């Protein structure tokens, strides 16, 4: 199946569910980075999901490496894995511009509709990491 970076392959509900489960069982970009530029932690207290994102940034604000670890439901961890694949090699500006609805569509709206907070925890945490990175650039720590 061929598609460009701006289009998402259309799947049926079962396809989206299988994609999410596969990312949960075999997460991409999972584990702690040795020397990250930024570490951000997010949680969804309602169901106990926790995600930590590690990010290294190269010249021009390009995401050199992005990893995550955490615990939680299939949706939160599967979505985080898919998200890490989506943003590897993107710029921080592209991450800031990512729309929550785009992620939900990519995950399968029917599959995650009742659990949107779980599905978007990784993106919320990633955006927090980008904000922390920019804040550090403006005000270096002493």
Describe this structure in words.
With 142 residues, the chain is of the alpha+beta class. It has one domain (29-132): Sufe protein. Chain: A (Alpha-Beta Complex). It is 48% helix and 19% strand. A three-stranded antiparallel β-sheet has the order 1-2-3, with helices on one face. The longest helix has 23 residues, at 116-138. The N and C termini lie far apart (51 Å).
In short:
With about 140 residues, this protein is an alpha+beta fold.
Topology summary:
Elements: H1 13-25, E1 38-44, E2 49-58, E3 62-71, H2 74-87, H3 92-97, H4 100-107, H5 109-112, H6 116-138
Antiparallel strand pairs: 1-2, 2-3
Helix pairs in contact: 1-2, 2-6, 4-6
CATH architecture: Alpha-Beta Complex
Number of individual domains: 1
Compressed to H and E, one letter per element, the order equals: HEEEHHHHH
User: How are the strands ordered across the major sheet?
Assistant: 1-2-3
Class per helix and strand makeup = alpha+beta
What is the straight-line distance between the termini? 51 Å
> In terms of per-residue confidence, which ranges show pLDDT below 50 for 5 or more consecutive residues?
1-7
**Total count of strands:** 3
Helix content: 40-55%
Dominant shape: globular
DSSP helical segment count: 6
Beta-strand content bin: 15-25%
